[in-house]
Design a protein that fits this description.
CATH superfamily of the largest domain: Medium-chain alcohol dehydrogenases, catalytic domain
Distance between the termini: 16 Å
Number of helices: 10
Order of helices and strands: EEEHEEEEHHEHEHEHEHEHEHEHE
Length: 324
């Protein structure tokens, strides 16, 4: 089978492909023929941060058709359309743990399905499982035009919340108003506290999703309501530490938490997957949520897809697709 790789040479992303042996599933794994795979910024940031020039296999989510099942897989069969977390998604075939596999709703295309797994699991974790977002509450999303940001906007609206988002592009904010964004703040700077307070009539944000990182942490804390919650899901600014106003944390009974599955046990990851299957997939089926696709690239153009992502031009997810 063919697998696509990237490497950094002189600061530039280069892509290539190699023929590798076809894998076979373990007892609780599925062998899936990949139709499309999502590109995630965190992988690209980690690759650049590593400084390695070695060939690297990217891709942590894919959508495709089951072609072989392990003997312990229950309820999943050859021919099923599935999507889920995996490793090395930019390839002809991938292995997906059966506990990470989700059925693709009938009306989602391969491209839409490939955009869904990581974003929906992250968003479900931070809005529902940890964030406890409820009807009528205010949600603030920094970097709302990202794949996770758009998914958070859509899920929050399905929960009956009101959403404020920041972006450096007024055009992107205007587009997202069509997806339910209640208030768009055009900025990439830590200067949105007053606008948040004005939009919420002094109440503040009940839940904050910080996608940007440490450069806006203080402003996020200053934008929070009494007993507000703050989810840190990324740091695209590269800033991984920042001062914390302990007086505000103490007096306003704030709750700060991180969103990452890296150290979760398999049963903990499966709890998130089960929640998405139960609570989110029906939203896709009834079109209350729909993955927003910024652009689709062929697998052979992986380097171009990464360049486009790093240009920050997209609203929503970047997906790579294979011809059917």
């Amino acid at each position: 089978m063919q697998r696509h790789y990237v490497q950094i040479l002189d600061g530039r992303i280069h892509a290539s492909s190699q023929e590798v042996p076809l894998m076979h599933p373990g007892p609780s794994q599925l062998l899936v023929q990949v139709r499309a795979a999502g590109l995630n910024r965190g992988e690209v940031l980690a690759l650049r941060h590593s400084g390695s020039e070695a060939l690297t296999s990217l891709g942590i989510e894919a959508a495709g058709e089951v072609v072989e099942t392990g003997p312990e897989c229950q309820g999943l069969h050859v021919g099923d359309r599935v999507m889920g977390r995996c490793k090395g998604a930019f390839a002809d075939h991938v292995l997906i743990d059966a506990r990470d596999a989700m059925p693709i709703p009938d009306d989602l295309s391969w491209v839409q399905a490939a955009a869904a797994p990581i974003a929906t699991m992250v968003v479900y974790d931070m809005l529902v499982m940890q964030g406890h977002l409820t009807t009528g509450e205010w949600l603030l999303i920094t970097g709302v035009s990202s794949g996770v940001g758009v998914a958070a906007l859509q899920m929050a609206k399905s929960l009956g919340a009101r959403v404020i988002g920041t972006s450096g592009s007024q055009g992107k904010l205007t587009d997202l108003a069509g997806h339910g964004l209640d208030c768009g703040i055009p900025t990439r700077q830590p200067d949105f506290r007053e606008a948040v307070m004005a939009a919420t009539e002094g109440h503040g944000a009940d839940l904050v999703v910080n996608i940007i990182g440490g450069s806006v942490l203080a402003e996020c804390v200053g934008s929070m309501a009494l007993q507000g919650r703050l989810a840190t899901v990324g740091y695209v600014d590269g800033v991984t530490s920042a001062p914390l106003d302990l007086a505000a944390l103490h007096s306003r009974r704030l709750h700060l938490f991180g969103v990452s599955s890296k150290q979760l046990k398999p049963e903990q990851r499966h709890a998130v997957v089960s929640g998405v299957i139960r609570d989110v997939l029906p939203l896709f089926a009834h079109e209350r949520m729909r993955p927003v696709i910024a652009r689709v690239f062929p697998f052979a153009h992986l380097a171009d897809a990464i360049t486009y992502m790093e240009s920050n031009a997209q609203t929503g997810k970047i997906v790579l697709s294979k011809p059917i």
